[in-house]
Amino acid sequence: MTKEQFEFLYKDVCDWLKFIETKITVLLTFETGLFYFVLKEFVSSRKNCLYYLGIFGTVISLAFLIYTLIPRINKSNTNPFYFMNWADKNFNPTNKIDISKCYENQIRDLAIVAKRKSDMMTKSIVIFILSIIVTIISIL
Fold first, then answer.
1. Residue ranges of the Pycsar effector protein domain (predicted)?
2. What is the pLDDT of residue 51?
3. For the chain, what is the radius of gyration of the CA atoms?
4. Is the pLDDT of residue 12 over 80?
5. Which of 20, 47, 60, 90 has its Cβ near the most Cβ atoms within 10 Å?
6. With contact defined as beta carbons under 8 Å apart, do 10 and 111 qualify?
7. Are the C-beta atoms of residues 104 and 81 closer than 8 Å to each other?
8. How far is the C-alpha of 16 from the C-alpha of 124, rounded, in Å?
């Protein structure tokens, strides 16, 4: 691949990661608001096991979303494209770096992060929907 193709692919992967993180933030806001609405509107004196199971599931779903937004930093590589390496005062990239290899490694790392965030978001959505349904059923 040419340098221009790597640059395009790198930008595309970064844009996808930004898009997924934006969706997670919006979903976190939406889930929190809907959870509050359901708890406030469907207050019942008979709180059974299903009710608490629904609340527990919703809290787990929200925890998944918050977990995906927390950055996990791995400074084990010396890739100059990795932004945290530049924060290290002792970091000095050598003149003999292979730009193509650096792009390839960074694109792969970002794609893995985007996939993990997307998978965690999907799990959170499924758990949240089931939890809200269980909470509403328990109140009826």
1. 8-139
2. 84
3. 21
4. yes
5. 20
6. no
7. no
8. 19
